[in-house]
Design a protein that fits this description.
mainly alpha, three-stranded antiparallel β-sheet, 3 strands, 61% helix
């Protein structure tokens, strides 16, 4: 292996950059989010749902009239428009979601959670909330949790302002 020379060899500069608390902050955030997602995914699977399907059902159920435009649903999730179409296709095939034409935009479609979808959520949510309590909210005081929610909304609104598209405020 050769010797590195030039600016890349400045280990003092690299060490200073690596010690930056911003590296620690984003690393801890990603580790915490990844760990929570892993803990929750197995519980979704017990109810024959993927994490994306669960997210879609919750977002629809929490939206006005329990429905969203497909484009707004894609904007609120981490999915592309084609990805959200595939998820909604699967949920629709299972009878958990129904689509209809958007009355205000002929090109658009609305996805809405069905009664069967609400029943599935009723089965999943108690265990989901237990896991959220165990691995997340119980680790914070009520004041810390409220502060964290404010911080997360601030960050979300800065990096993904479209994420509240079509929502009513229960984001």
């Amino acid at each position: 292996m050769g010797t590195v020379t030039g600016p890349a060899a400045d280990s003092t500069r690299i060490d200073a950059l690596l010690a930056d608390p911003r590296i620690t902050a984003i690393g801890l955030f990603e580790e915490a989010a990844g760990g929570l997602k892993a803990r929750l995914a197995s519980q979704y699977a017990e109810h024959d749902l993927t994490p994306a399907e669960f997210e879609v059902l919750v977002r629809l159920a929490r939206s006005p009239n329990r429905e969203l435009r497909m484009s707004d649903l894609a904007a609120q999730t981490q999915l592309t428009t084609s990805g959200i179409t595939r998820v909604v296709d699967r949920l629709e095939a299972d009878g958990l979601v129904a689509r209809r034409a958007c009355p205000t935009d002929r090109r658009g479609a609305l996805a809405g959670v069905t009664e069967s979808g609400l029943t599935r959520l009723d089965e999943v949510l108690p265990g989901h909330l237990d896991l959220v309590e165990k691995w997340f909210t119980s680790l914070l005081s009520p004041t810390e949790l409220q502060a964290l929610l404010r911080y997360l909304r601030t960050i979300r609104d800065a990096v993904r302002p479209e994420a509240t598209a079509g929502a009513s405020g229960a984001a």
